[in-house]
Amino acid sequence: MSLRIQHIVARDALNFLTRPSNFIAWGHLSIRIAGEALLFTAALYFLERSMVLCVLFFYACAIWHSFWGYAGLGHELFHARVFSARWLNKAGFHIASYLTWNNPEFFCNSHNHHHQFAFAQDDAEGFSRQNWGWFSIVCYLSVDLPLVVRRLYYVAINAAGLLPRANGYMRVDPSIRKQSQKMLVFHVLIQCAIWLSLSQWQANLMWFLMPFSGQFLNRLLAQSQHIGLAGFKESGPLQYARTVRLPAILEFLYAGMNFHAEHHLAPAIPYYKLQLLHAQLTEKKLLTSSNAYSFFIHDIWHEIRNAQAGT
């Protein structure tokens, strides 16, 4: 039988770990917003001064922006353990989803199932594999135009109340239709605000392309969470999820999801306290973390090749 968090951490300590800190949450959110605003402003500043610097700042901003998604803060807001107020987590989750052109209803269904039945045959997230062919890698490193087309297509037809099937279309759940419609309105309002504020079509274009640009790092980190660990599904989260220590800025942007074994063991613990749980688990020799350098340079590519070969 796999260990439970109650077997490892004393009740008082667990109460502290699971209690959200609004001070930390608002501080982190402020840094996240300010960092993106500064990078985007710098890209606009150099637009007519230095195209090289403009592109570099835009690319950095796109990488920063990618961590609003489900490999990042959006995922933690879904678990409603960032802020103490449930409505604030829910509102943040929806905004983070819209910012990355994701329909939150799809993630709600798949992620709840993933936590309850990790690596079950129908666990789409546990067995999720990015495409790591050369063309896909180029798209992840630059602008993923196929993803642009795919996301816009799905948002449009979902907003119309449809879901594609092999032999045509079927009616989509009303909640999915409603979220797609809200997402379209959200982006139209932002585009109007950018145009009214700046009157620069380049600014509108950069904002539109940002969620589809510079995604390589985000996708690689998301892929690292479970790949190659399906064989440990009966051993519990400390075995079927992976912990990798990262530089502090990446741990921040990734919202602590590099502590993925800890997160699966205790999803009620806010991401900014997972490092405390990690310290307890390593002290008790219940968990070892992967070395980031060797894992991302060598090991993950070995696991990706094995997954692609079906071994």
In short:
This protein is mainly alpha-helical. Helices cover 63% and strands 3% of the residues.
Description:
This protein has 311 residues and is an all-alpha fold. The protein has one domain. It has a two-stranded antiparallel sheet with strand order 1-2. α3 runs antiparallel to α4, α9 crosses α10 and α10 runs antiparallel to α11. It is globular. The model has no long low-confidence stretch (mean pLDDT 94).
Which features would summarize this protein structure in a list?
63% helix, two-stranded antiparallel sheet, mainly alpha, 311 residues
Global shape: globular
Strand content: under 5%
Structural class: mainly alpha
**Radius of gyration based on Cα positions:** 20 Å
The number of domains is: 1
Helix content: 55-70%
Mean pLDDT: 94
Low-confidence stretches: none
Order of helices and strands: HHHHHHHHHEEHHHHHHHH
Please state how the strands of the largest beta sheet are arranged side by side: 1-2
Instruction: Find the count of extended strands (DSSP E, 2+ residues).
Output: 2
| N-to-C CA distance | 26 Å
Count of DSSP helices?
A: 17
Largest sheet: 2 strands, antiparallel
Write the layout of secondary structure elements.
Blueprint: H1 5-8, H2 11-18, H3 22-45, H4 51-66, H5 73-78, H6 86-99, H7 104-116, H8 134-141, H9 145-159, E1 162-165, E2 168-171, H10 174-198, H11 201-209, H12 216-224, H13 237-240, H14 248-253, H15 260-265, H16 274-283, H17 292-309
Antiparallel strand pairs: 1-2
Helix pairs in contact: 3-4, 9-10, 10-11
